[in-house]
Design brief:
The chain starts with a helix and ends in a 41-residue tail after the last helix. Strand 2 and strand 3 form a beta hairpin. It has a domain of 261 residues. By secondary structure, the chain is of the alpha+beta class. The strands form three sheets. Strands 1, 2, 3, 4, 10, 11, 12, 13 and 14 form a nine-stranded antiparallel beta sheet that branches. The protein has a three-stranded antiparallel beta sheet with strand order 5-9-6. Helix 2 runs antiparallel to helix 14 and helix 3 runs parallel beside helix 8. The chain contains 14 helices and 14 strands. The longest helix has 18 residues.
Length: 478
């Protein structure tokens, strides 16, 4: 069954050999040559630039993505595709800067929004795998040094919230029934007597003084705040910053050099980062940094610095595929997570026994097998099925999926349309159609933009460098 048909209407959609891709791909710079020798032309039918070669068999992406960009007036997109842990295509469509006539290139960097959540979930699972925490540890036992802001009254159910509840979005917060804290950053900064945007401790202390909307662990309701808490847990347990921990444990060993926590203001972004466009007619908003001035929401009020472990990462599409290759339960590349940990990630929550799909630990999951009460902790890979996640921020849309056939794809866009539901449906339909109509399974397939499979520093596959290792499966243990 198609992933997009399962995603629609779900409240939770926030809605080796590893063949590495060179960070600065040959013949392409941020404002460089459009297309490649032997590619499929320099522009699509609407005049938008195409960069990177289309991989043989994946031509349906060139049929679907330009139509999608045209319908929703989105400047640009990058798509990366992986087949059995081998990256076989990175393709740029459209403009990194429409006004500056800068084409998106395959190595352009994007805000990835909620696709940050699987990264945070894996970081937590690595700590659990190392015995440094358990998933059923109460969160505020770890963060016991934090107290509500003055005047706040803690909900007695806070003590019952576990790390597992946060991973599954079952901590007790329902933004639709109350409010989204990232929409109150200026107010929270004032209450905490901090300059805006406020830090994670200020947001957590503010929310500790607010009531929960349901009993923890009884249902799943998407919560950005829950993942912000997980980032603070990682810092408390590891003793280092969240970004440093994830880079040290995951991205640096992979040779993934583009991951970083993003910045709201244009002058503070990476030079290879795209420009972000709000939907046509979107209102200006007071800047968090200077309330006396107004700016487009992606450039002034989004408060990316406060979002961190929930929505804060920036990266290239190919680097996101690098990350996915070591946490995807595929047998080709040794995973950073042990089989038992992956089974925990994919386990069905008790409150979702009758649901076709559900939120596991950091991923939306459609299992291949129905739930078997006799084998609630089944580690057979057949329970894994398909995983996916969708992300959205003002000026940003993102989607990633891995299916049960060993294929994975990610798409980053530098705008988000006003009609969220229509966009989500059409975006997922376009990607589903491209995946479904593509030809797969060539054992010699490789990314035509990087045929030698080099990492950014010139190393090949053998340069993967996870320190230590589990003698059973080659996974990192420290």
């Amino acid at each position: 069954m198609r992933i997009s048909s399962l995603s629609r209407g779900l409240a939770l959609a926030a809605l080796c050999a590893f063949s590495s891709v060179c960070f600065a791909q040959e013949g392409l710079t941020r404002g460089g040559r459009i297309g490649q020798d032997g590619g499929q032309g320099t522009a699509d039918q609407f005049g938008r630039p195409l960069t990177g070669q289309i991989a043989p068999g994946l031509e349906p992406f060139d049929a679907q993505i330009p139509q999608l960009l045209q319908k929703y007036d989105i400047p640009g997109c990058v798509v990366a595709v992986m087949d059995n842990d081998k990256l076989v295509m990175t393709r740029g469509y459209g403009w990194a800067s429409r006004e500056g006539k800068v084409p998106i290139s395959p190595d352009s960097m994007f805000r990835i929004g909620a696709l940050s959540k699987p990264i945070t979930a894996v970081a937590i699972l690595l700590l659990a795998q190392e015995g440094k925490l358990t998933l059923d540890t109460p969160v505020f036992n770890v963060l016991k040094d934090l107290v509500p802001l003055e005047g706040g009254t803690p909900d007695p159910r806070l003590s019952k919230i576990t790390i597992r509840h946060l991973l599954q979005h079952s901590g007790g917060w329902d933004a639709e029934a109350s409010f989204e804290p990232f929409d109150r950053l200026a107010q929270i900064a004032t209450a905490a007597k901090q300059p805006a945007p406020p830090d994670s401790d200020a947001i957590i202390r503010y929310m500790m003084g607010q009531p929960l909307q349901f009993d923890p662990g009884t249902k799943a309701v998407y919560s950005n705040f829950g993942y912000l808490l997980l980032g603070r847990v990682i810092e408390k347990i590891s003793g280092i910053g969240y970004e440093d921990f994830v880079n040290n444990k995951l991205f640096t060993p992979l040779g993934a050099q583009t991951f970083r926590l993003g910045a709201t203001r244009k002058q503070e972004r990476d030079l290879n980062e795209v420009k972000y466009y709000d939907y046509k007619g979107a209102p200006m908003a007071p800047s968090l940094f200077d309330p006396a001035t107004s700016a487009p929401r992606p450039d002034g009020s989004i408060g990316l610095e406060s979002r961190g472990a929930s929505d804060g990462w920036v990266c290239s599409a190919s680097d996101y595929m690098r990350f996915l290759s070591v946490v995807d339960a595929s047998p080709v590349v040794p995973d950073a997570l042990a089989p038992g940990t992956l089974a925990e990630l994919a386990r069905r929550p008790a409150y979702a026994l009758t649901e076709e799909s559900y939120y596991g630990l950091g991923w939306k999951i459609l299992p291949l097998k129905p739930y078997d009460p006799k084998k609630p902790n089944d580690t057979d890979s057949g329970v894994y099925g398909s995983w996916w996640h969708e992300g959205a921020l003002p000026g940003t849309s993102s989607f990633v999926a891995r299916d049960s056939n060993g294929r994975a794809w990610v798409a980053f866009f530098n705008s988000h349309p006003q009609d969220d539901k229509a966009w989500s449906k059409d975006m997922l339909d376009a990607l589903d159609t491209a995946v479904g109509q593509s030809q797969w399974g060539d054992p010699n397939a490789q990314d035509p933009n990087n045929p030698e499979g080099r990492t950014p520093d010139g190393r090949n596959l053998d340069g993967r460098n996870f320190n230590g290792g589990n003698p059973e499966n080659g996974n990192p243990d420290g």
